[in-house]
Inverse folding.
């Protein structure tokens, strides 16, 4: 934010640019000054953007193997990611790719935010380079949903770093969140003529893109402003994102550290704001148009060693060592969701709000108030069980004062009893078949728990929806039920998704009860389709 004096000076400077603007440098200066004023005005109008709880990681040549393995395991289990990139301006040249931000969605709206520093990668022959390569392979695989603000074209310049290939990008189908947000906005805020209302009000309350004067395509900053009513700073666009943001890469003075901290926060906020926009859109029942059919592997969403079993040939799991647990606390101050990192092993880095910590190893998330816990539990855990074994990816131990969620403390072979190993082995024997069943599927969250599998199957048959398997799971945390329908005809997935859109809710259940045993025709489902 500018001081009053700076603000006035900026305005004066802008007025003194001669018109018409002839030189390129004048044009750039005018653009720069206008941006400064815009940033200032936004900062005055809105509270700063507030990210959800996240753990930041720097990915560069000093990132350890153990750290990368942990990130890979999280990426394997997660289904959703946001991705963004930063470039640097080189005088009289095209922008050069410098930094990639990758966010791995974790349960309870938490996430890992990776800042992948392209100018500081390990040597290509190094195991860590191969692990980063492996990470991208997972992220670009068909069963993952990747969100990007804009087209995936911005990823192509990054192939020069050899962490992924053109083919990886070609075969991926990221959701263009910028487009989707535009569609979302048009759906939720169509133009409303003010003529029908009282004519003497000068201001229209229409929130359509035209009336709000929103330039297309939507900027991320505008979407945060209008949807979240917060200010997402854009003042660091085109800064030196190649200098090494990790404070442990080089010896730095406090100014240098602060600058890197600002750039790191800025870069991670791009992903973190996308995440909040996505959550907001989902809450408003927006259906994302993914270009690809989702190939979802639920099996992997359980933080079981199954995933590490399968990947043994590519990397070895890290033995879990309780003494290496670092903690970060969610401190309930004025901002309930600020994260403070406490590094047990190293007190030379004092905890900072939203500070970027080099390579956290296994951590515990400690939530100290019930409010925080409920915020964390906002969305239900995605846990699916089609066998009877309760298997959770997140364990919560309640104590009178604190609720501790241990997330991503990945179970390791050494720690498992014989019985547990056998259970895992048995599970992995069926994993391929299950994956085949669930490759094309519909997921309905928060269904009415009174529906039985048989009832659901009957309803699907009535609607001529061919399915392989139907499964209901109940979240151990939110106690809500989710329905998974593995489909036989993937080409009609979107049709089936539409058909089942309003089914299996409490309203649907009650309606079935009241109409029973009369009409069983599928026609009455159509009524649910009306919003
Ligand atoms: Zn309008």
């Amino acid at each position: 934010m500018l001081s009053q004096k700076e603000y006035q000076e900026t305005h004066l400077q802008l007025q003194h640019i001669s018109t018409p603007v002839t030189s390129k440098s004048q044009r750039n200066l005018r653009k720069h000054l206008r941006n400064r004023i815009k940033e200032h005005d936004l900062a005055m109008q809105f509270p700063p953007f507030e990210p959800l709880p996240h753990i930041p990681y720097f990915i560069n040549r000093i990132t350890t193997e153990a750290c990368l393995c942990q990130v890979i395991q999280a990426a394997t289990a997660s289904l959703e990611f946001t991705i963004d990139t930063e470039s640097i301006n080189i005088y009289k040249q095209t922008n050069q790719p410098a930094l990639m931000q990758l966010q791995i969605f974790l349960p309870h709206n938490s996430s890992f935010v990776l800042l992948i520093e392209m100018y500081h990668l390990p040597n290509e022959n190094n195991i860590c380079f191969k692990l980063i390569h492996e990470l991208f392979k997972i992220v670009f695989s068909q069963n993952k949903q990747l969100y990007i603000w804009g087209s995936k074209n911005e990823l192509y310049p990054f192939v020069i770093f050899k962490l992924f290939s053109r083919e990886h990008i070609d075969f991926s189908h990221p959701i263009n969140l910028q487009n989707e947000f535009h569609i979302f906005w048009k759906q939720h805020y169509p133009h409303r003529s003010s003529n029908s209302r009282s004519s003497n009000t000068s201001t229209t309350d229409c929130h359509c893109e035209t009336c709000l004067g929103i330039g297309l395509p939507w900027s991320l900053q505008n979407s945060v402003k209008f949807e979240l009513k917060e200010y997402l700073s854009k003042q660091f666009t085109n800064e030196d994102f190649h200098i090494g943001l990790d404070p442990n890469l080089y010896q730095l003075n406090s100014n240098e550290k602060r600058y890197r901290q600002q750039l790191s926060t800025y870069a991670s906020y791009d992903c973190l704001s996308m995440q909040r926009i996505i959550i907001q859109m989902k809450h408003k029942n927006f259906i994302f148009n993914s270009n690809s059919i989702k190939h979802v592997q639920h099996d992997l969403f359980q933080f079981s060693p199954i995933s590490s079993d399968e990947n043994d040939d590519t990397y070895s799991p890290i033995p879990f060592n309780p003494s290496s647990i670092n903690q970060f606390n969610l401190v309930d101050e004025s901002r309930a969701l600020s994260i403070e990192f406490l590094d047990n092993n190293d007190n030379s880095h004092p905890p900072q709000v939203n500070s970027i910590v080099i390579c956290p190893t296994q951590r515990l998330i400690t939530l100290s108030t019930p409010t925080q816990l409920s915020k964390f539990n906002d969305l239900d855990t995605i846990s699916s069980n089609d066998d009877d074994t309760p298997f959770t990816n997140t364990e919560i131990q309640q104590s009178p004062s604190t609720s501790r969620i241990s997330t991503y403390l990945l179970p390791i072979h050494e720690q498992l009893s014989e019985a547990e190993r056998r259970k895992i082995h048995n599970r992995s024997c069926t994993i391929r078949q299950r994956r085949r069943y669930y490759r094309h599927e519909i997921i309905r969250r928060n269904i009415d728990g009174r529906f039985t599998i048989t009832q659901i199957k009957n309803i699907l048959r009535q609607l001529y929806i061919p399915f392989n398997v139907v499964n209901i799971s109940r979240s151990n945390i939110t106690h809500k039920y989710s329905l998974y329908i593995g489909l036989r005809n993937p080409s009609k997935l979107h049709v089936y998704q539409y058909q089942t859109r309003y089914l299996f809710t409490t309203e649907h259940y009650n309606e079935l009860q009241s109409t029973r045993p009369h009409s069983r025709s599928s026609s009455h489902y159509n009524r649910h389709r009306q919003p």
